[in-house]
């Protein structure tokens, strides 16, 4: 029998193993079986996937999603793996790794493919003299993940600059374009998190600012102090980016294979947002426990709501930097990061996370919510 020409696939939509069990790649799509997933996450934790497909174009992403949906196969979409906790048993389905590339800058309009490295993309916009995402430097992961949880840090959020998100809608089977309003962005949330099984992000579009090489107005007090300016001032965009990178590195929030404090998902817990009633009860418990003059961090979070600091809660509940004796511990640089010291399992990590959640609730009556997505496990 004459073998099929390259670019066709008589075995179906994706590669299959040959009679000797060797993985084959067809139409640029790589498929592996019983594939390790831990190396694809910043935690370096988790068991294997029954099947791992790597897609390098939007068409391949869509075809992989459709193939999984049509066959009823569970699907796990992986970008940079920086916000993912995978169970030790792994994933019994198709893991789709999005490895698409594309950085297109037209004036102040930027379009990124979902698989583009986010931190590298930020650097390129700063090099181009544009403002709007310079304070989001050093955040690990891919561009496609940024709208999902409305990534933010140091006074900027992607909702400030995102204009559109192109996604594959698994409900309708069509590629759609969502406006920023349709994305329904709010603190670490979006319509993509509201409907986690509906959309697969393909491309993200931004409107940046040409401020003559200057940054957007500096909003975050820590950044302003480090730069020696007042909140609201502008500085060279490159200086803002470099300062944020230094601040993040000091907290173990810039990936470094040699530094186990960065073997994490960054901030593991959301900063709690409390109603006025809940905040009053929280404040009473804080002052009862720590003294009547103690004032916890408090930031306006919309009418009738106040945001407080998860890191402050964790520290004041007794979980200080470096807490733990096992292979999963709190970072030695930042109490909000849970880390793999090199030999941890996912269960080790979850045990630590549950201890922190229980301890904070016992101390202050506030229940912390994990920020990373969990697969096959729960806190």
UniProtKB/TrEMBL annotation:
Q: Which Pfam families match?
A: FAD_binding_4, MurB_C
Q: Which Gene3D superfamilies match?
A: 3.30.465.10, UDP-N-acetylenolpyruvoylglucosamine reductase, C-terminal domain, Uridine Diphospho-n-acetylenolpyruvylglucosamine Reductase, domain 2
Lineage: superkingdom? Bacteria
**Keywords on this record?**
Cell cycle, Cell division, Cell shape, Cell wall biogenesis/degradation, Cytoplasm, FAD, Flavoprotein, NADP, Oxidoreductase, Peptidoglycan synthesis
Q: What is its main location?
A: cytoplasm
Localization per Swiss-Prot or TrEMBL: Cytoplasm
Cofactor(s) this protein cannot do without: FAD
Gene Ontology MF annotations: UDP-N-acetylmuramate dehydrogenase activity
Q: Which PANTHER family match?
A: UDP-N-ACETYLENOLPYRUVOYLGLUCOSAMINE REDUCTASE
Instruction: Describe the task this protein carries out.
Output: Cell wall formation.
Identify its protein family: Belongs to the MurB family.
NCBIfam families in UniProt: murB, PRK13903.1
In Swiss-Prot or TrEMBL terms, this protein is called UDP-N-acetylenolpyruvoylglucosamine reductase
The organism encoding this protein is Streptomyces erythrochromogenes
